[in-house]
Design brief:
This protein has two domains: 115 residues, Hotdog Thioesterase (Thiol Ester Dehydrase, Chain A, Roll); 52 residues. Helix content is 36%, strand content 27%. Bound molecules: coenzyme A (COA).
Length: 169
Amino acid sequence: MSELMTPGNANFLGKVFGGAILALLDKVAYVTASRFAGKICVTASFDRVDFHSPIEVGELVHMVGSVDFAGRTSVQTRIEVYAENIHEGTTRHTNSCIVTMVAIDDDGKPTPIPQLIAETREEKIRFLQGRARKEWAKTHVTDSLELLGKLESMDDAELDRLMQSDLRP
Ligand SMILES: CC(C)(COP(=O)(O)OP(=O)(O)OC[C@H]1O[C@@H](n2cnc3c(N)ncnc32)[C@H](O)[C@@H]1OP(=O)(O)O)[C@@H](O)C(=O)NCCC(=O)NCCS
């Protein structure tokens, strides 16, 4: 998907507002996942999104979506973002993003999707990376809840002491 960055997309510095890019990423993730699943999909999560270089108003943004990994009902989409300076004829890669979408049935419940068949070496590596990311996300949630439980059980003096150190409780 390509879109021209108009002044309506500008932030206070005159560059493109990050949220404008996030909205486009969400649309591309929807098309990518829904095309693969053959079903309506909803956004479950955005992986980390880093903006490596600002996108200028007047540039043409290109987003290329593909599927890294598919679980039983979820699709991990990868979106590569490029900014084209249409006057200079130059294009630069500005970021990559992973968005997990979940296929939904008529009752709004997650519904099974086709199996992803990884054929090339690159596809196999991306599949395995995607599967690992899914596992890491689960561990991250468990670890975060465990940390929250520990922090909430501490008194203020312990919290202050901990803030002076780099160590986890
Ligand atoms: C995403 C959603 C459908 C998941 O529903 P759920 O009942 O929690 O689903 P389940 O626990 O059965 O998980 C279903 C799949 O979603 C995945 N999933 C659920 N929550 C997830 C999350 N936060 N991040 C990534 N994947 C997630 C699960 O890993 C599972 O994948 P799999 O079937 O491929 O193994 C539900 O949380 C939802 O409707 N969220 C709101 C979506 C939305 O409105 N998005 C737009 C925001 S404006």
